[in-house]
Amino acid sequence: MTWEPAVTCTAVSKTFYEKDETLAYLPEYRGLAGRWRYARLRPRAVRAVDGVSFEVRRGEIYGVLGPNGSGKSTLIRLLSTLLEPDAGEMSVFGLDVVRDRLAVRQLINRVSVEAAFFKKLSALENLRYAARLYGLAPREGTEKALDILERLGLERRKAFVSVENLSRGMQQKVAVARALFTSPVLLLLDEPTTGLDPRSKREVQDFVLEVRAFHDTTVLLTSHDMAEADRLCDRVAFIDEGRLRAEGRPSELKERYGPNGAGTLEDVFLEVTGRRWPGEEDED
Amino acid sequence: MDAPRRRSLRTELGALLGFVERNFYLTRRYLGWEVVFLFYTVVNTLTIAFIGVTTPGEAGPKVLYLVIGALLWGYLSVIFHDVSESVAWERWEGTIEYTFMAPIHRLTHLGGMCVYAIAYGITRSIIVLTVVAFFFKLSLSGANLPGALAVLLVSSIAFIGLGLMAAVLPLLSTERGPQATHIMEGFILLVSGVYYEVEVLPSWLRPISVLSPATYTLRGVRAAILEGAAMRDLVGYLVILAVMGLGLIPLGLAVFRMGERHAMKAGKLKRHG
Ligand SMILES: Nc1ncnc2c1ncn2[C@@H]1O[C@H](COP(=O)(O)OP(=O)(O)O)[C@@H](O)[C@H]1O
Ligand SMILES: [Mg+2]
Questions:
Q1: pTM of the complete model
Q2: I need a surface site. Which of A1, B92, B149, B241 has the fewest CB within 10 A?
Q3: Does a structural domain hold residue B271?
């Protein structure tokens, strides 16, 4: 493993402004009609990512752990050039995420929590589209994707039915295959196993390990599954309310923060945030 | 894995083809609806054409006048729709982030949508025209068909420009964007003289018709088909439409870029809100 940085993130912040509809019904706004009340509301600022700095080394599997709403997906979106940071710098293999957007896009791919497919089209049709976008010959590209799908335990014939008729686990496998067949140097996985049955979860996890073992791919993954992070990640970072609270190798963190130098990653979370790990929760 | 691929013209063309192919798959998947909409368009065109038969005087030219209006409007509104709804649609599907983070130029993406829209619009128009020709004896003797086609092609460019401008609206506001698109389309329909001469419009509305590219498309195509106007008589329309197109395309792209940038800053490039 070389120590060349794959991702550097320096003091990155992102704030969203949201209007909260329910506030329109506060007494202060009485007397105004609904839409006008809404128009009078000041947007509420949500600091989704707040001064986050970290570095991912080439070839590493780096995990970002945090409860729902802690800013994990925002961080991934910033890295995948879908959002522009308000402040701070982010680069992927030395390329600036804002200035060299197109070049960064060639290096990365992302698997999001929700499977982003044309649901009426088959997996194969979706993969053909993806192949063309990423400059692969469609035939060769889809062959490669089908091989990956087979590796992930998806029957070949399932690739020919509409994606909407596939289970969530199968859809997620197609999403993983779609991200991988473009040979990204940086793979961004946003809660890739959330909502999967234990077996599919295991299969996807095994595959992530396999990818790292056999290809020159760096993986940045988010999760709120501590066991998964422990199993997959070389290093993890805890994020809570947009802030990075602790970072290190899972064993190191457990030693440093766990009771009597032992314990679990849940204990680490409690120690660094002062809050109990919320555990498995429903995805929003 | 392998070294980062060089972006080349071939890759971009391949991606453009990818958009065309994807839209074709989608049309095929929703074929039932396509047939239903097509049926409705055919019937709509026929009912309008029959108005020409009921009014006094020789029916032939009047029917043709109305059919040209209905066909052209069908074609131009399909282009406008397909282009302007391309973003709204992907947002609804949930594929918007995937498409927008692909390593291709936005021009390629939008170009692909436009190429498909034109191919789709032409195919539809041909089918409608075929059915209409079966109901009415449309005399095209003396018509300058190549001239009409030239006007149509040049005006497609202007409509693509308008579509691009409208396409970005859903990125700014999920609900208001598509609403604005429909208002825009309705307005163009009103002022462009699709089924009547713009002279019948109230005087305060008439100046606006000058701004709509459709006004010139309709006049040019009617001159070519009904009066058999020669190419040199159509040059005026062609020049106006070309100028509008050459202005509207870069403007449309610039507006789209600005909208995309804004969406990336405000976090609107995603499925909900
Ligand atoms: N595009 C957006 N617009 C407005 N608010 C957003 C947007 N994306 C995320 N947020 C808000 O930012 C916070 C962090 O969200 P997110 O990054 O999705 O967290 P996580 O992935 O850890 O669950 C949440 O409060 C969420 O509501
Ligand atoms: Mg998330």
A1: 0.89
A2: A1
A3: no
